[in-house]
Amino acid sequence: MKLEAVYGLHAVTTLLQRSPDQVTEVWVQKGRLDKRMERVLDEAMKLGIAVREADKGLLNQKVEGNHQGVIAFRKPIQQASERNLPDILEKIEGTPFILILDGVTDPHNLGACIRTADAAGVHLVIAPKDKSAPLNATAAKVACGAAEVVPYVQVTNLARTMKDLQERGVWIIGTAGEATSSVYQQDLKGPLALVMGAEGAGMRRLTREHCDGLINIPMAGEVSSVNVSVATGICLFEAVRQRGL
After folding, report:
1. Residue 215 and residue 182 in contact, taking contact as beta carbons nearer than 8 Å
2. CATH code of the domain containing 107
3. I want to staple 203 with a disulfide (CB 3.0 to 4.6 A). Which of 17, 61, 106, 197 is the partner?
4. What is the pLDDT of residue 224?
């Protein structure tokens, strides 16, 4: 089994707090001792996780990016299977709040969307298997621990899954620049699945046709669109505001 590296003080701290059973070892930069690093070391030792000191050069070889002197090696994230989707939906407590990502291929954007979804109280993130980012180590790092708690399910047929959600009473709202109604005008209080499309291309035609309604994000400046993770945050937290979560 190939271990995945999670690096950076915040990401490692969150991983230790949320999924300590998945961590096999923590590497820290030799000679670096400050309050944030001490918290990581204390957490690891309290959990009985092995800690190894290493030179900065060796840490640089293990990951690409700013590791801030700490790397945690973890078992690969067990992504939720499509066959478990009905059970996940049945176990949702309260009013369903779902995020659908159609064509988000960048793991950084996926991780940011999952992190925002967790903060907004989303129960589940769904994406098509085709042309969607995998839940890999990069996405998990950006998600800062949210990937361990928010189910991410990739489905073979997104249109069919959307139809199944509608049969369960979930209202599906898609985002599109040409929509005539804004996110601030749309009722987002009931059972909801919010669909975010890929940057540039937006939602695919079949996905759009299976939405119950379309909304846009009003843009006041010269820029015609925003990054998909930013757009996801705007829409999800407007729903949070309306739902009083």
Report:
1. yes
2. 3.40.1280.10
3. 197
4. 63
Which segments in the chain show pLDDT lower than 50? Answer: none
Q: Is 85 left (phi over 0), alpha (psi -120 to 50) or beta?
A: alpha
Distance, CA of 86 to CA of 216 (rounded, Å):
30
178 and 234 housed in the same domain:
yes
Could you tell me which of 128, 135, 86 has the C-alpha nearest to residue 114?
135
Q: Provide the pLDDT for residue 1.
A: 67
What per-residue confidence (pLDDT) applies to 29? 94
Q: Whole-angstrom Cα distance, residue 163 to residue 215?
A: 19
Burial of 185 (0-12, 13-18, 19+ CB in 10 A): exposed
The burial class, CB within 10 Å (0-12 / 13-18 / 19+), for 201 is: exposed
Q: Which domain holds residue 224?
A: 82-243
Q: Helix, strand or coil for residue 41?
A: helix
Identify the sign of the CA torsion 164, 99, 78, 148.
negative
Q: What is the pTM of this model?
A: 0.84
Q: Quick one: pLDDT at residue 137?
A: 77
One domain for residues 63 and 94: no
Residue 181 and residue 65 share a domain: no
